[in-house]
Amino acid sequence: MSKLTQVEEGKVAGGAAGQEEPAEKLSAVFPSYARFDISLVKGKGSWVWDDKGNKYLDFTSGLAVTSLGHAPEKVGAKLKEQIDTLWHVSNLFHIPGQDKVAKLLTENSCADQVFFCNSGAEANEAAIKLARRYQQKIKGVDRYEVITFEQSFHGRTLATLTATGQQKVKEGFLPLPAGFKTVPLHDLSALGAAIGEHTAAIMIEMILAEGGVLEVQPEFLEAVAALCKEHGLLLIVDEVQTGMGRTGKLFGHQHYNIEPDIFTLAKGVASGFPAGLMLGKGYLREAFSPGSHATTFGGTPLAAAVMSATIETMLEENVPQLAAESGSYLVGQLKEKLADVPFITEIRGKGLLIGIECKGPVGDIVLAGQKKGLLFVTAGPNVIRLLPNLYVSKEEIDQAVDILSELIHTYATEANGEA
Ligand SMILES: *Cc1c(COP(=O)(O)O)cnc(C)c1O
User: Fold this and answer.
1) What is the pLDDT of residues 209-248, one digit of tens each?
2) Does the beta carbon of 120 sit less than 6 angstroms from any atom of ligand 1?
3) Å from CA of 120 to ligand 1 middle
């Protein structure tokens, strides 16, 4: 049966057979995203343009990905150079670009070893696999369970959605893999009670970004690290969103007095080129012996060139420090302009990962922002999430704050009027 016939019979479209539904109306892309009604076609620095020529100030950065702004020139130059040199070779060969990236990252963190992959979920999969394999093959113990936290987000593969502490990502995907437990954040006794003879690791974000921009309390994190030491567990920090300067330090965990055994990166690490990394301490090295884990596209010459250009730029230009300064300016301005709005319960975050928690849903504010030329997203139903690029200027922050302040004041008044 041809595809067209299937459409005519309503099978591809999923509609009832015989129902008149012109095939061209349905996109050939699975509708797994609730997309905004905007098609972005061009970007430079803090700005993006849609296919109608409208210009927007981008406070989403592709969800913490384009941290050096859109189309950053230095990184672009390295990408173009690499395009004319070598795109891809198998990981069966040495890839010098990987050693360069690994050196940059290990010299600037507590990690000693790096594994290259292609996304955040894959980096977390690698972390979970490394933790299990270290416990089972190196320590010789029957430990496999990973404890995570409610409201966390760790990815969409079967293992990482199971690790994720949000019910909505799991619906319809049963059965889920075994070996995961979730406990409430900041509940030390629940965490203590969850640790058992099969526990291998605890996995945590430094700011639960998707879960509402919830910052982990330092005392809690220190207690988690102490529990890991006491019970022989590995501490895995998911830095997919908080890593690469976003929070005002190169890695989010560097705000705290702890060292993870393993941490993961993706989003901001290659300026929009797909890349993920799993980093670990030297004592974990032998757990990933030859043949134990692999991926075709991890750390290709092309990906490695973009990663090292991104990381070098961040280090040379002290981009994390820019994020810290712009972040405190942005939060200060928001607090000043929105101090009189009871609709807002809290303005929080670190660096340029900022949440504005409100008393009600904020989806309409996001849509209204688009009409005013400002793009931002939510983190859960009631939290506005701001993720500008880390070079965002003071003037751009002022523009965004003016728009946000007007939107929120209007919305808060309307919401009050209706109540
Ligand atoms: C985005 C994100 C992931 C998943 O990354 P993908 O590249 O989408 O697979 C995992 N953990 C955190 C904290 C994230 O923000």
Assistant:
1) 999 999 999 999 999 999 999 999 999 999 999 999 999 9
2) yes
3) 4
Query: Looking at residue 404, what DSSP letter applies?
Result: H
* Pocket lining: 209 vs ligand 1, CB cutoff 6 Å: yes
Per-residue DSSP letter, 75: H
Identify the band that residue 25 occupies on the pLDDT scale cut at 50, 70 and 90: confident
Residue showing tokens 């730029």: 313
Indicate the class that CATH gives domain 38-64+319-418.
Answer: alpha beta
Residue 214: closest CA among 189, 241, 249, 234: 241
Reading phi first (left if > 0) and then psi (alpha if -120 to 50, else beta), residue 113 is in beta
Determine if residue 220 is left, alpha or beta; phi over 0 gives left, psi from -120 to 50 gives alpha, anything else beta. Answer: alpha
Ligand 1 atom index nearest CA of 205:
13
Whether 90 and 296 have beta carbons less than 8 Å apart is answered as yes
Kindly report whether the global pTM for this prediction surpasses the value 0.70.
yes
Q: Does domain 73-316 have CATH number 3.40.640.10?
A: yes
Q: Of all protein residues, whose CA lies closest to atom 11 belonging to ligand 1?
A: 154
Question: How far does CA 412 lie from the centroid of its chain?
Answer: 29
Whether the CB of 205 sits within 6 Å of ligand 1: yes
Q: How far apart are CA 19 and CA 13, in angstroms?
A: 10
Q: How far apart are CA 370 and CA 373, in angstroms?
A: 5
d(CA 412, CA 410): 6
Q: 241: Cβ below 6 Å to ligand 1?
A: yes
Which regions of the chain carry the CATH code 3.40.640.10?
A: 73-316
Token pair, residue 418, equals 């209706």
